[in-house]
């Protein structure tokens, strides 16, 4: 059954109920700063500023149908590729589902892409049609004449913001039929192309079927038990599999979701309180910021009614156990889960901790619902329990291929098994622990160092907000470990303090260099280690030698 059937079912059964809420705190704050608005009530300010907007299930489904008809009237052929380059907004998901309903392959794109990356990805995925928002006008304008495969550019936004080279998507769609298009979809049809995060170079295009999207719905609801009364607070970008596939649990349940535009701690707590959020998915930096704000007194927990909030879960990057211990001290009633997945495995859920396994925090968990796992050596053979190897997963959400890249596909797909590139080990109870990315392993003096283990240790230091460990070339040892450390606001720390703290590590695991600097993360929370290696490998910054 194609995923679009869930949307049609919700429209039929819960048509007048709110499906999506868009909350934009920045608009509210701009409105509150206007002298003319001071006499208005808060409700009036929110309405006129556009702070809070909603769409019902029936409106959602009808808008998706109109987008589908717009595409079909424009000549879209079955399985043609349609890109979506938009910030999180109420229009994002109707456009996504409209593409699928028209029989197209939807291609979500990272809002951080430069013009060159946009051009590259449009060509790689053979995109014919591009939907884009107001935030991207300048970047798309720079590509005019350089994307010959794109025959149609459709603007989603206010009429006065539309550039002359694009069609007005909203006004054109409004004149299209709101009835379902007469397009038959099958489970094995191609449905979506997602791009890898690009932390190792230009992104790869990951092709998925309709069955894979439905798998994500089933896995997410099985893991987190979304019901009709749940409210999911969605903060990460919808182009990423993590955000959307967690929302798929709400789609399956027919429950409300809130799209929060902004990641400030106060905005997250306000939205959770005001909207009665029951489930919140966070990235590590946002969870750290919330805890820092509460522990410093910048925010007060008693100012927010968070009584409805039942589950906090994290994914997209390794989760420091120390972070979850801090979280449980402040939010003891919250259930917690860790989600592991890749865009190649349709996002989160191929491995998950499970809310009942809080004592195993630090592990990513066991094989998720409908999934199987194994840990293998360089020859693809299973390693003995407790040994480090590469994590491989198998299930109905494994990608078809890297589109237009058979060599890269062959490197990671071995029969039905996807080799993830993540090094892991399994404990005596069958729980899997990430050790590091295969490409991030540091070999120093013949010993393998796994940066995630060192990073987890460093994050327990009370002055450290975030850190990353990378390998730097060394004449004698081949590589040495360097720790880039981002301190909490307002604190001072020296390399000697870090050196003393690291005496809790085996000598060969202790960083040889420490660099106090911000930690760059991409939009999905992953540390940009290639960027750090490029920045520091040449020794262009002052690096403090650690005495070991």
Describe it for me?
The chain has 3 domains: 4-11 and 57-178 and 186-247, Rossmann fold (3-Layer(aba) Sandwich); 311-437, Luciferase, Domain 3 (Luciferase, domain 3); 441-545, GMP Synthetase, Chain A, domain 3, CATH 3.30.300. It is built from 17 helices and 28 strands. The longest helix has 17 residues, at 57-73. It starts with a helix and ends with a strand. Residues 539-548 have low confidence and may be disordered.
Element layout with pairings:
Layout: H1 4-14, E1 18-23, H2 25-32, H3 42-49, E2 52-56, H4 57-73, E3 81-85, H5 92-101, E4 105-108, H6 115-124, E5 127-133, H7 137-141, E6 152-156, E7 167-168, H8 169-174, E8 190-195, E9 205-209, H9 210-224, E10 231-234, H10 241-253, E11 256-260, H11 265-275, E12 279-282, H12 284-296, E13 311-314, H13 321-330, E14 335-342, E15 347-352, E16 366-367, E17 372-376, E18 389-394, E19 401-402, H14 406-412, E20 413-414, E21 417-426, E22 432-437, E23 442-444, E24 447-449, H15 451-458, E25 464-474, E26 478-487, H16 495-501, E27 513-516, H17 529-536, E28 544-545
Helix pairs in contact: 1-4, 4-5, 9-10, 11-12, 12-13
List keywords for this structure.
single chain, 548 residues, alpha/beta, Rossmann fold, Luciferase, domain 3, GMP Synthetase, Chain A, domain 3, 3 domains, nine-stranded mixed sheet, five-stranded parallel sheet, 30% helix, globular, disordered C terminus
Distance between the termini: 60 Å
SS element count, helices: 17
- Return the CATH architecture of the largest domain: 3-Layer(aba) Sandwich
Q: Strands across the major sheet, in which order?
A: 2-1-11-10-12-13-14-15-16
On the 0 to 100 scale, the average pLDDT is 89
How many domains in all?
3
Text of the CATH class of the largest domain = Alpha Beta
Q: Tell me roughly what share of residues is in helical segments.
A: 25-40%
